[in-house]
Amino acid sequence: MLMSYRRTQCLGVAARLQLFDRLALKPQTAAELAEECRVDPPSLRRLVRALVAMDLLVEDEGGRLNSTPIGMHFAADQLAPMARYVTSEPAWRAWSRLEDSIRTGQRAFDLEFGMRDWDFYATHPEAGAIFDAAMQALTSPAAAAIIAAHDFSGYKRVVDIGGGDGSLLIAILSAYPGLEGILFDRPGVVERAAPRLRESGLEERCRAVEGSFFEEVPSGAGAYLMKWILHDWEDGDAQRLLAVSRRAMTTGTDLIVVERVAPARVGPADLELVLADLQMMVMNGGRERTESEFRELLAGAGFRLAAVTETGTPVSVLRAVAV
């Protein structure tokens, strides 16, 4: 456990060099990969040996490399974007300040960079694109399970609040041809999402609206969706954005929240959840919450928690009703 950061960095470098994608096209030797990647051959050979020992690559008697079934998960269309994000300079430097967060209760990211991560991504588009790609990589595998956990057929229009690049909203609209959508997020995020909406062929049924969910959100929808939004924020800010959303709704409107739901007491099986909670503390200042904490948070903003549905993935779907 103490030295796990070394494996993480190996995965990050392999993802940035696109090793798993290159080998998916054809098996290659370490020397051939080094030439294609334009890196130092002896050094890449040492990295490759580590990836073989980690059961991510396999090497035949002729020295040709190929991905194992585990390694294939780190291709560009799967977990490579997440590997690039967690080993990016902003994330790495923020986590180096974990102790400062523990001592002060402040966000480690802010202590390191002097601003919130959202503001950093807005002023550093390359870092913002890495973050967007990571969120898409996490959303895509869970989208089908989220859609299966909640029936969207009773709505005419759904607003995805803080919808990022639109991955989940696109999946929902594709599954429900009669549904319209609004992707709502900050100006820079909406700008980065626009190409995906065009490529999806859903422009006639989905429009992107920019703004701040702390000020106002689009009104008149039958359902409002928040995926991995509430855990980004401290309780006061989370309740404030919920209250703003409530003002856009009529009584009986559904709020669909997609989040991890923490158990009241954690054990060894909950390691990933509590590490995700620390991730929120370090990067965003938010937290993962229990069902009772969600219930209280929602009630304070004018919602009643009506149902919690597990999806078979790390996240659950919480349906709240505006009262």
Write structural notes for this entry.
- With 323 residues, the chain is α/β, with parallel strands linked by helices.
- It folds into two domains: 4-74, Winged helix-like DNA-binding domain superfamily/Winged helix DNA-binding domain (Arc Repressor Mutant, subunit A, Orthogonal Bundle); 137-322, 3-Layer(aba) Sandwich (Rossmann fold).
- It has 15 helices and eleven strands.
- The strands form three sheets. It has a seven-stranded mixed beta sheet with strand order 5-4-3-6-7-11-10, with helices on both faces. A two-stranded antiparallel ribbon has the order 1-2. It has a two-stranded parallel ribbon with strand order 8-9.
- Strand 6 (223-227), helix 13 and strand 7 form a beta-alpha-beta unit.
Structural class: alpha/beta
Q: What is the strand tally?
A: 11
Sheet with most strands: strand arrangement: 5-4-3-6-7-11-10
Order of helices and strands: HHHHEEHHHHHHEHEHEEHEEHEHEE
Domains, number: 2
* Residues in β-strands, percent: 15-25%
Shape: globular
Q: What is the third-level CATH name, the topology of the largest domain?
A: Rossmann fold
How many helices does DSSP assign? Answer: 15
| Low confidence ranges | none
- Please give the share of residues in helix: 40-55%
Tell me what the CATH architecture of the largest domain is.
3-Layer(aba) Sandwich
- Assembly of the depicted chains: single chain
What is the average of the pLDDT values? 95
Sheet having the most strands: 7 strands, mixed
C-alpha Rg, in Å? 21 Å
Q: What is the assigned CATH homologous superfamily of the largest domain? A: Vaccinia Virus protein VP39
CATH C-level of the largest domain? Alpha Beta
Distance between the termini: 47 Å
